[in-house]
C-alpha cells in the first residue's frame, strides 16, 4: 500500500466510528482465511506429463514459501480485500427519498439540517465527514440548513448549484426551470453550461429569487434571470397554502400536477407563458380551476379520468 493510500485510509478511519468497525470486520474476515497462506509451504504434486520435477516449486508456491514472499502475498491479499470488500462493508451515507402525489415529508439530516420534501418529489442527501450535499432530482424542497462555517451545504438541481452555510430557502425544480427563493440568510446560486463553464454567481438575500434552466443543453449559454424581490414568503406550501405573484401559468401547472393525481394539462402552448397572481389552499384545488377563467381568457375542461385541460377561450 502506497503512502498516499495509507494516508487516505487513516483519514477515512477517523471520519466516522462505523468506518473503523467496517475495517475491523474486514480484518476479522481476513484472519479467518489466514490459514490459506500455509499452502505456500507445501510442495506441489507433479502432474504427468506437464508437471515440473519434484525438486522445483511453482512460482506461486515459491512466493508463499519464503518469509518475504508470505509477507508480499499477505499484502497483495489484503489490498485485494480492501478493494473488493470495502464497497460492501462501508455504511452508505447517502439517502434517497421520494414522495407521491400530495405527500409531504420532513427529513432530519445528521448535521441537524431539516428538509421538507414537497409532493411528487425526489431528493438524494449525503452528510458524512466534510460533505453536506443534496441533489433535488425533481420536485420541490424547503431547506433549513444547520449553520456550519467549515462545511458549506451544497444543493444541486440539474445544472443549477446552490451553496449555503446556514439559512432557510426553497428550491423548486420544474419541467424546464429551477427557482431558488430565500426566506432568510444568504444563498449563492450558480448555473453550469456544458460548453460555457460556470456562470456568474448570484448572491441572494431574504425574500430574493433567481430562476435558472433545469437542464442546460450542450450548445446553450447560461440563462439565469436577474435576482428579483418576492413578496410571498417561500415555503408557504408547507402549511397548505399555494401563493403566486406574476407566475407563469406553466409553472403553476407544474406545481398542481404534484397535488392532483389525474393531472392538469395546458392545451394551447401560447398560454404557458401567461402571467397570473393567485392564492389557494392545496386541499381546495377546485377553487383554482373555478377562478382561473376570471383571471385569463381560458376555459377549463375535464375528461372521464378527471384530467383537467386548460385551453384558450375562442
UniProtKB/TrEMBL annotation:
Pfam families: DUF4880, FecR. InterPro entries: FecR, FecR_N, Ferrdict_sens_TM. PANTHER family: PERIPLASMIC SIGNAL SENSOR AND SIGMA FACTOR ACTIVATOR FECR-RELATED, PROTEIN FECR. This is FecR domain-containing protein. The chain crosses the membrane at residues 71-90. Residues 2-29 form the FecR N-terminal domain. It comes from Sphingomonas tagetis. It comes from the Bacteria. One of its GO terms (molecular function) is sigma factor antagonist activity.
